[in-house]
Design a protein that fits this description.
47% helix; Rossmann fold; alpha/beta; single chain; 6-stranded mixed β-sheet; 3-stranded antiparallel β-sheet; binds adenosine-5'-triphosphate; 9 strands
């Protein structure tokens, strides 16, 4: 029987390369070995499912990976490994994502709606409602780069709720608006909940989380610390933040450094081995566990890095292009140069064409 879920993430990881300069980034693109580049694992194996009609809260301290996870679910960024299945359209409202800075508010509304599959007629019909909900006045015809963070959030939220997605993802977008707009958003979220929509709600405000969420996932420095009933998880999280606040400045710093080091030194090979062992232990009769885990880790992943084969192909194409450029500059024909490559070192003043008999 098919599992009934709206979102499923399994063993999801996300690795970032920590380049110091743009040239380092460019060099790494062609490099065969990437051992010298420092890495950071923003997510170290997250697994959770979200049921249809459920509102899941994501909590965790700054930099724990909440936005990374919500961006992966909404398809903005790919995971490094793991399985992600999202059944339905997503729409994300985040302070720093989703809006094009150089376009006006009105143009952003059209672009986002078109990307969501709406027709121009549908957008024309919806436009006044979105503008009224966002309540940003004449700014709607100004480029978004001139907006305050509150205005961006209002516009982002207005677009996201009006395009009527199956899954609404709200990443800290309520924290920057004023009280009136906040209430309007809460009403809209409540309406969405009543309609049975699925919502992912990222927030530092436990009050908001407790008011809106059925279930909460606590992400702690790239790991899923706990997932379950809202009250149970927020109580544990409060205990943690209370404990953390009591630490001295040095203890806080040491704690954070230790956690970040774990994220820097995370080994995907060891993690894969661990998952394989756990699966074997849970189902000893299961065959081909290694290849099952390998498929689980890599089959739905779009690689952001060039494979060795592609790198070799790129180099080959580059060398051929350079060769033809040099032949062109030398003034000899390809045939002449192939017969005597030293001609490339002695460019001719006149053009030498191949002998035509
Ligand atoms: N493009 C990137 N390159 C390198 N590291 C990144 C990148 N994006 C995020 N990170 C790192 O990944 C970690 C998780 O970031 P993320 O924004 O997901 O955390 P968060 O829980 O949403 O934080 P906050 O509560 O502050 O919004 C952080 O340590 C962050 O520095």
């Amino acid at each position: 029987m098919e599992e009934n879920y709206k979102v499923k993430v399994q063993n999801v990881t996300k690795e970032y390369d920590l380049f110091k300069t743009q040239s380092e980034k460019l060099r790494s693109f062609f490099a065969i070995s990437k051992h010298q580049i420092p890495h950071f694992w923003s997510l170290m194996g997250i697994s959770l499912t979200i049921q249809p009609g459920e509102t899941l809260g994501l909590i965790g301290v700054n930099g724990s990976g909440k936005s990374t996870l919500s961006n992966i679910i909404s398809g903005i960024i790919p995971q490094t490994t793991g399985y992600v299945d999202v059944r339905g359209d997503t729409s994300i409202v985040a302070i720093h994502a989703g809006l094009r800075n150089n376009l006006t508010g009105r143009e952003n509304i059209r672009l986002k709606s078109l990307m969501q599959g709406l027709t121009n007629e549908e957008i024309d019909e919806m436009m006044p409602d979105i503008i009224a909900f966002a309540d940003i006045g004449d700014f709607v015809d100004q480029p978004v780069k001139s907006y305050s963070s509150g205005m961006r959030s209002r516009l982002g939220f207005a677009i996201a709720v009006h395009i009527n997605p199956d899954i609404l993802i709200i990443d800290e977008a309520l924290s920057v608006g004023d009280d009136t707009f906040y209430q309007k958003c809460v009403d809209k979220i409540t309406e969405f909940k009543q309609e049975g929509k699925t919502i992912i709600f990222v927030s530092h405000s436990l009050k908001q989380i407790e008011m809106l969420c059925d279930k909460v996932a606590w992400i702690n420095y790239g790991e899923l610390k706990m997932v379950g009933e809202t009250k149970e998880v927020t109580t544990k999280y409060r205990e943690f933040t209370k404990w953390f606040k009591k630490l001295s400045k040095k203890e806080k710093h040491d704690f954070e450094t230790e956690r970040k080091n774990v994220q820097k030194n995370f080994s995907i090979q060891n993690y894969q081995k661990q998952v394989t062992e756990e699966m074997q232990k849970a189902a000893p009769q299961e065959k081909n566990v290694h290849s099952k885990v390998h498929r689980l880790f890599y089959s739905s992943v779009i690689s952001e890095k060039m494979s060795v084969g592609n790198q070799l192909l790129t180099w080959a194409v580059l060398l051929v292009v350079i060769f033809f450029c040099l032949v062109n500059i030398s003034g000899y024909s390809v045939g002449h140069v192939l017969n005597d490559p030293s001609l490339l070192m002695h460019p001719s003043d006149v053009l030498h064409l191949p002998d035509v008999k």
